[in-house]
Amino acid sequence: MTNADHADSRQLLRSRPTSPVVAPSVLAADFADLAADCSNALDSGGKLLHLDVMDGHFVPNLSFGPGLIEKLRVSLPDTCFDVHLMITDPEKYIEPFAKSGADHITFHCEVVSEDEAKRLADRVRELGCTAGIAINPETPFEKVQNLLGSFEMLLVMSVHPGFGGQSFIAEVLEKTRRGREEGPANLILEMDGGVAPETAEACRDVGCDVLVAGSALFGKSNSQRPEVVRTMLG
Ligand code: DX5
Ligand code: ZN
């Protein structure tokens, strides 16, 4: 497969995928050879790229900003960019990330009130992207319960945000199950953190649509990656 085969990818999060997809998480890619490593992950069966933005405040780590996404967009013009803002002040940064080439922007429920969340989701859509709300492992589901109809996606964190390579927290599966049961039928459910061949089936079983894979995918050699994606999709 070549990048030309990913031509429809930018539309991917405009509606709920008809079957689960794997989203390679750029955080675990080779930053010194980023576009090539991401291309390989897409050629291995990944359908979109998950891009983790960290501000060193909401999470104890820094990653990258809109400048990097803008450059990556030039190399990968047809790939859906799923931007996950792990930042304290999403309002300030939604616009630069939308303009950098994001197709979808998720921010965290822990940093906004319900009213702010709905207002910011509208802002994300005004800027041409779809909107996601993310929930940390220790945050009760009730924090997003009234927001499910205002977002295209619910992202359930299955590790404590900030770092790749952590172990999957199985207790959060209940939140995804509730999202599927209580949210609109077209709500996209994403699982993020520690998702790997060993944990993907449990995610799919509760109705997960997008399986984010960082170290499970980029930690493998290029030749092993297609098998990782296949196993995750069952
Ligand atoms: C964690 C990030 C994840 C991370 C996942 O804070 O939100 O997207 O890249 O990495 P793995 O798959 O290695 O747990
Ligand atoms: Zn993420």
Relevant terms:
33% helix; TIM Barrel; disordered N terminus; 18% strand; eight-stranded parallel beta sheet; binds D-xylitol-5-phosphate; binds zinc ion; alpha/beta; 8 strands; 234 residues
What fraction strand? 15-25%
Task: Please write the string of helix (H) and strand (E) elements.
Answer: EHEHEHEHEHEHEHEHH
Count of individual domains: 1
Query: Which structural class is indicated by helix and strand composition?
Result: alpha/beta
Query: CATH first level: which class?
Result: Alpha Beta
Total of helices: 9
Q: Give the name of the CATH architecture.
A: Alpha-Beta Barrel
Q: What is the CATH topology descriptor?
A: TIM Barrel
The major β-sheet equals:
8 strands, parallel
Mean pLDDT: 96
Helix share bin: 25-40%
**C-alpha end-to-end distance:** 20 Å
- Spans of 5+ residues with little confidence (pLDDT < 50)? 1-6
CATH superfamily, by name, is Aldolase class I
Shape: globular
Hetero groups in this structure are: D-xylitol-5-phosphate, zinc ion
Which strand order do you get reading across the main beta sheet?
1-8-7-6-5-4-3-2
The strand count comes to 8
What Rg is obtained from the alpha carbons, in whole angstroms? 16 Å
